[in-house]
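subagent[fold] <- orchestrator: predict structure for attached chain, return C-alpha cells only, no commentary.
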Amino acid sequence: MTQSLGARTTLVTGMHPDFPVHVLDGIEVRATAVADLPRYANTYDAAGNRSQILLSPGEPLAIVPHLVRGEEPDVVMYAPAYHEFRKAPLRFRDSLTAVALQGPLRAVGGEGQVVHHPEPMAAASRFVRPGWIAFFSDEDTPDPEALARHLAASQTLAILTRGHNGATLFELDGTAQHWPALPATPVDPTGAGDCFAAAFMVRLAETDDLAMAMQFALAAGALAVEGSGISGLPSRAAIEARMNREAA
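subagent[fold] -> orchestrator:
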C-alpha cells in the first residue's frame, strides 16, 4: 500500500521458502526464513460481518537487529497477524511509529474460531508506547471505546476504525473526534483496515496534520473495499480523485 502512495517501502518479515515473492516486486524485502506463518480463513455474512478461523498460529518471529541497524525511517508500522511477537519488538527514536492491534487482540476458541482476547487492555499495552499510534477496529474487542480511551490515557494516540461508520480519533487529552466514512460499494473488505492505517501514516508523515491524514485514509479505505485483493490497492491519484469528488 505505501508503495502505491509513492513511499519507498521496506518490508521486514518472516517468509516461507515457497512464498511467491513476485507479488512484492518494487518493495525491498528483508526476511528471515520461517517454516510457517499465521494463516486465516475469512467469511463474511450479508451485512459484511467477518468470521475467522485460525488455520495456523505460525511461529515466533524475530526482527533480527542487523536487518534494521543504523536506520531511522520516517514511518515504522508493526502489524503482527497473530501472536508472532510477545511485545513491540524495536523502538526507533525519531520515527513516526504505529502498531496495528488486530493480531494481538485475537484469541482462539473451539475449532479454531477466532474470538476476542479476554484481556484486551493487557494485550494492547504490550504493543504500544507513549507517542505511538494504535489502530484497531470496533470488531476487534467487546468494548472498543474503553480500550481506545485507555490507550489515549497512556499517551498513545488511538484510532478506532468502524467500517461503513467511519473512524474515531482518541487524542491524548481525552477528547475524541469522529469522521464519517466515504460512500463505497463493497466488493472485498479484507485488508481495508491495513490500507487505511498505511495511508494515514504516510499522509501524517507528509503533513503533520491529523485531520488531513484522516480524510486521506478514509478515501483510501473506501477505495480498498471496492477492489479485490492486492489489485484493489488504490494509488495516490485515485485517493485524491475520490477526496475531490466527495468535496465537490
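orchestrator: received. Logging for downstream: The chain has a mean pLDDT of 88. Residues 36 and 59 are 6 Å apart (CA to CA).
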